[in-house]
Amino acid sequence: MIIFPDIEIQNGQSVNRTRGKEKEPDVYDISPLEAAKKFVGADAEWLHIIDIDSSLQYGHFNAELICEIIKSVDIPVQVGGGVRTQSGVEWWLDHGAARVVLGTVAVVDRLLIMEVCGRHPGKIVISITGKDGYAMIDGWRTKTSFTTLELAKSFEDSGAAAIIYTDLDRFEGGQEVGLASTIEIGTELEIPLISTGTIRTLDDVSALSLLPNIEGVIIGRALFQGTFELADAIEVARTSRIAPELANEGVAPKLEAVSGIPIKNIDHVGIFVSDLDRSLKFYETLGFIKKEGLGFSQGKPVLMRHPSGVAIKLLHHEDRSKSHTQIALRVSSLAQTRAFMEYNGIGIADSYDYGTKGVVCIKDPDDNLIELHGDQTGDSSFLQ
Fold first, then answer.
1. DSSP character for 281?
2. What distance in Å separates the CA atoms of residue 368 and residue 265, rounded to the nearest whole number?
3. What is the DSSP string of 310-348?
């Protein structure tokens, strides 16, 4: 997943908007050019630059400054803000922009979109802002009759490079608002999705990196306010746990078409025991063979496997009066499993990795632990 540092420019200054263009933006001390150089020095792969003045009224108000930034950096820059005509698109591409972002005009002038995408395939990015399920235009002020999903899908075959999706619900509601709309659009689309309005912490970066079909995420406020460093966000994004089979396809299976999580089979059953020797003898009598297990008294399990392939793990428990189990299931994709949990509002109690292998833990309504085992390389076999 690519991190796109966001530089919004108004009156030649670095700014950030919180609730649309009608509000006074936050202004930062660092100049746009200095910010761009700082981001490049932190190993940014792209820059995302928006001319706020031009988005409020027609013109090239900060064009000279943006062109200076483009010439000063050695990475591609995507530019947006008030681009409403074919000549405007051509002007930015002629002046070094790698991609041009089109927002409101994408809704009100479909013929223009088809024309510029046809002339410049892979050079146009469509920006869609969603609130309460519907697309917003005119700087987030006007609600359209289009749902964000149907609008995004209408650009699937346009030749656009990507869709930028701004989730206003999460942007304004904060972290307590889920990623449901971003997940829905990402899993429904084949065209790459760039998310914005979703990042406040590094945990948000990690959560986005787990979702299939997210090409990148645009981050502005958190970087300018020093909530975290760009280098740290890039490191989190580069260690994405997306399963390779999903990354190669470029899109996740549609969540509503999945009947539950992608379970392959039972990985093992964990059985809490108080006397290891007695339990070993009992399960060996049933035909189980001890495979591995050291440090039982320190809480490490003893693995036993039956010739049929059934596996159990004997877990240490000091209280003999308690006898209970936990179940571990194999899943074909941890990435899809995490996305499904997020989509359905199921909390993840714990997660951890063993090299390329990972485990996600959830609890049922009675607080019973369920382990979901998968392999980050796509083969979720744990017990070899």
1. H
2. 19
3. -EEEEEE-S-TT---EEEEEEES-HHHHHHHHHHTTPPP
| 3-class SS of residue 158 | coil
Q: Show the DSSP H helices in 160-250 as ranges.
A: 168-173, 180-188, 202-209, 221-224, 230-238, 244-249
Give me the amino acid identity at 204: D
Residue type at 61 in one-letter notation? F
Angle at 199 between CA 197 and CA 202, to 5 degrees: 175
Q: Please check whether the domain covering 2-240 is classified as CATH 2.40.160.20.
A: no
Common-topology check for domains 2-240 and 255-375? no
User: 124 - beta bridge partners?
Assistant: 100
* pLDDT 10s digits, 27-69: 999 999 999 999 999 999 999 999 998 887 766 789 999 999 9
pLDDT in tens, 108-154: 888 899 899 989 989 999 999 888 888 888 766 778 888 888 889 88
CATH of domain 255-375: 3.10.180.10
Q: Answer for the pair 163, 125: CB distance below 8 angstroms, yes or no.
A: yes
**What span, in angstroms and rounded, lies between the C-alpha atoms of 159 and 116?**
9
- Are the CB atoms for 351 and 339 separated by under 8 Å? no
**Torsions phi, psi for 215 (to 5 deg):** -70, -35
Q: Say if residues 212 and 5 touch (Cβ distance below 8 Å).
A: no
User: CA 131, 133, 139, 141: dihedral to nearest 10 degrees?
Assistant: -70
Domain chopping of the chain, boundaries = 2-240, 255-375
What are the start-end ranges of the E strands in 104-220?
A: 124-131, 134-137, 142-147, 162-167, 193-196, 214-219
Q: Among all chains, which residue has been given the structure tokens 């428990």?
A: 317
138 contact partners, CB below 8 Å, separation of at least 6 = 104
Evaluate if pTM is beyond 0.70.
no
- Candidates 265, 382, 261; CA nearest to 333 is 261
Task: Give phi and psi for 348, each to the nearest 5.
Answer: -95, 120
